[in-house]
Write a structure and sequence with these properties.
Layout (H helix, E strand, L loop, with lengths): L1 E2 L7 H8 L6 E5 L9 H16 L4 E6 L10 H13 L3 E7 L17 E5 L6 H4 L2 H7 L3 E5 L22 H14 L3 H10 L6 E2 L6 H8 L18 H4 L9
Parallel strand pairs: 1-2, 2-3, 3-4, 4-5, 5-6, 6-7
Helix pairs in contact: 1-2, 2-3
Length: about 250
């Protein structure tokens, strides 16, 4: 499965040239402009132009990159457009990409969805602790998790990590001490943590080299020692990368 988005630069053209017709492709719909006069046209044009660039006939999943738009006055029109694409076989699953596990409670009854992509990591256990994943699975929703390496921060040594993250030094010290005690690499621990979650259907990982991909694929789903409670973090300034630009 490939996770991409219309807004990810020229990646769709590159994937189209490589050939991805034998893959399940999950993409994300950009935020609909506030002055958009024809939502149907925006949605359909965006998706069919995306399929043309990817050189495929359908998407496995289409995620709303800004799911709060379902709560807007145009929510009904937006969802109807997505539902039509699903009924026509252009997309298999309607989904949302979220930052807060329970933000979908505002619309999940009115607008049933098939797929959710949520952050989850050794620091960020909100998906489980809030009961979010149990709720999603009870409704038959497929769950994919992302940010399992927290944009790479969990894989870095203290001297590699940007200095603006030093305010959480106690978290990093706990993390590295626990890794040494368990005899695990950061990569092993991060992957095992998500792979042991039986209700998680997919894990989104990003790589920049073949060697990185091979290292990830070699990690086993063996049991993991219990994580220290001090590792659980609810500080949105750290666990939500969207807030990092405000760090100094």
């Amino acid at each position: 499965m490939l996770d991409t988005a219309i807004a990810y630069g020229d990646c769709e053209q590159r994937l189209g040239r490589i050939g991805v017709k034998d893959w399940k492709v999950v993409s994300k719909l950009p935020e609909i402009p506030s002055d958009c006069k024809d939502i149907d046209r925006f949605v359909f044009t965006s998706i069919f132009e995306s399929l043309h660039r990817l050189k495929i006939d359908r998407l496995y999943g289409l995620l709303l990159h800004r799911p709060h738009q379902l709560n807007s006055t145009n929510g009904d029109i937006l969802y109807k457009s997505l539902l039509q694409l699903k009924c026509e076989g252009v997309i298999t699953k309607i989904g949302v990409s979220i930052y807060e596990p329970l933000e979908v409670l505002n619309f999940i009854d009115r607008y049933p969805i098939d797929l959710i992509q949520s952050p989850f990591s050794v620091l960020d256990n909100r998906l489980v602790d809030t009961g979010g994943i149990a709720l999603f699975k009870s409704r038959g929703i497929e769950v994919h998790v992302r940010s399992i390496f927290l944009q790479g921060l969990l894989l870095m040594s203290n001297h590699q990590r940007p200095i603006q993250f030093n305010r959480w030094r106690s978290v990093w010290d706990t993390w590295h001490k626990w890794l040494i005690e368990c005899g695990l690499s950061p990569l092993e621990a991060c992957l095992r943590h998500v792979l042991k979650q039986s209700q998680v259907d997919g894990v989104v990982v990003g790589v920049t080299t073949l060697e990185q991909l091979q290292s990830i694929l070699q990690i086993s789903a063996d049991d993991l020692f219990e994580l220290p409670s001090a590792l659980k973090c609810d500080d949105r300034k750290l666990i939500n990368p969207a807030n990092w630009k405000n760090l100094n």
